Amino acid sequence: VEPGPMTEARAHQDRLTKPSGSLGVLEDVAVRLAGIAGTCPPPLPVPAALAIFAADHGVHAQGVSPWPQEVTAQMVANFTAGGAVANAFAAEVGASVTVVDVGVAADLPPAPRLLARKVAYGTADLSQGPAMTQEQATAALTAGIEVARELVDAGGRCLVTGDMGIANTTASAALICAFTGRPAAGVTGRGTGVDDATYEHKIEIVRRGLRANGITEAGAVPDGPDEALRVLAAVGGLEHAAIAGFVLGAAAARVPVILDGVIAGAAALVAGALAPDAIGYCLAGHRSAEPGHAVALAHLGLDPLVDLRLRLGEGTGGLLAHPLVSAAARVMHEVATFDSAGVADKGD
Amino acid sequence: VEPGPMTEARAHQDRLTKPSGSLGVLEDVAVRLAGIAGTCPPPLPVPAALAIFAADHGVHAQGVSPWPQEVTAQMVANFTAGGAVANAFAAEVGASVTVVDVGVAADLPPAPRLLARKVAYGTADLSQGPAMTQEQATAALTAGIEVARELVDAGGRCLVTGDMGIANTTASAALICAFTGRPAAGVTGRGTGVDDATYEHKIEIVRRGLRANGITEAGAVPDGPDEALRVLAAVGGLEHAAIAGFVLGAAAARVPVILDGVIAGAAALVAGALAPDAIGYCLAGHRSAEPGHAVALAHLGLDPLVDLRLRLGEGTGGLLAHPLVSAAARVMHEVATFDSAGVADKGD
């Protein structure tokens, strides 16, 4: 991101007919958008393009989720048919919906809005050893980069991350542990709904995954891109790898990317470890109910825009943030200055 | 609001292809919308209609704001010309903008989107005695009720409150003190920006206003509509009275009304004291940076939707909440059920 347009944006904000600073977090968003685009005022981040990366998880066999694994494929069908919450929210904010199969454990029939980029039929069980080979992780990462480029080529001016993968909050917790150095109990959540016993078991599975892959709980974070890639392959999911690539692709295209919830937060930690500058292109769409999400956002230095106790995934929280991001940019284009409007400035 | 459609909405939420409760606060919003409309699914709250009630305040003479009083009229001109932040946000969310002069201390030339409903050229100084006569307060209240009806008649399906009035956070603090029984220091804020000395002075002016009008600081709250109207006239503003009426008008029309910030929160306390059922038609658009706003919302039992440290007023926070409210309603119309989509439900 470029500092010059950011300084210019900050100065412009202070000339507009509003008390200085009175748009709170949205002033920071507008400044960030100027830095991302390298120009002030920043272009409107419209239209938005959502990519839902879908994949399955070998760790599902450990009983970490009350949902059957088949729901991943069933929800992909729901997305392509337009019947999921993500579709309704995308319609609300004028975003396109693209579903990317990077690792669903089933053969999916071709469907509108579905991109077939399957790297594997799900990951291996991370609690027993590496979830992916490094080649698989790299292939999924590359798929994410390519999808970002394709969506921008198709006219998308703001990317939004989405995910679908039963058991993916378990892999997210393991990634957040590894990339922030926080203990498992502090970053593991109840996902889409587990009872107390399953929750304790889930924390233990995260710990087992770290141990099985030579990662010290609450230890040192990955040092450099090679180690980051190794950890991603060890305890991540194919959709985490793809979303990390999606973030890198957005940064390469100089387009903002709104992160959804805890899965995107975990993936952004990977992206940041691979290319720290990429985080400057990220906006945190919301804070989910998962405790690991707040940890990831704090580590990334990102402030969430929406905080409505959502815990659905799919990109729903990211989509809801889009009108806020767009409104922040619109202020830079449409609002009069004190001089132009003949409004007196504050007298101190 | 009707309990039957609310129960039906809650049950429908649990059949949709999403984990139960995973839409957090938005599930409550959808349920509330069903109760407001008296039908499930609730109609989409689209389009939104913003009314910015503008008025001046005699207490400005006490030096509670760094802004000259003329800024109220200047900002009205900015709204009617389309150059304010509220205009930009309204364009973003597809809302109409109507400006209502209920008490600006100047003669305003006719302008598009401007309704002339002036009750007085500003209020009297609340720190010296009653800000309004009861007749003035009632006239402003009636103007708000009428504007609500007119906007609904013109097709508005979700009302949004807005305000403009230099020094109106002082009157808001006094109203919040009186209607919640909290001390002045806990509900008075820095408004659009005052320094430490002015802030202390502002608290003292609020206290003086309560004393001058026979209201005990941290004492009993108004008992019944007559006393509520007396307190409104004593320490409120003409825009507070009008917004209280606007809330009553929305309730009468069975249309949701999104409250903006601290001025709307103070006005809603008045509306709730006049007609407690009216609060069921209110949604709290955001939580502003003003401390009194959180106090007012807690007293009303309302959860804010947006929390971005905004402190601008004009309806900006309410407008930003509109896509969230609309998205909540849209879920009830467009999302598939587990049965219809062939998605397996959670296995516990």
Automatic annotation (TrEMBL), chains A, B:
Database matches in PANTHER family: NICOTINATE-NUCLEOTIDE--DIMETHYLBENZIMIDAZOLE PHOSPHORIBOSYLTRANSFERASE
UniProt record similarity statement: Belongs to the CobT family.
EC code: 2.4.2.21
Name of the gene encoding the protein in the UniProt record: cobT
Keyword Transit peptide: no
NCBIfam families: cobT_DBIPRT, PRK00105.1
GO molecular-function terms, A-Z: nicotinate-nucleotide-dimethylbenzimidazole phosphoribosyltransferase activity
GO biological process, one term: cobalamin biosynthetic process
Protein name: Nicotinate-nucleotide--dimethylbenzimidazole phosphoribosyltransferase
Lineage: Bacteria, Bacillati, Actinomycetota, Actinomycetes, Streptosporangiales
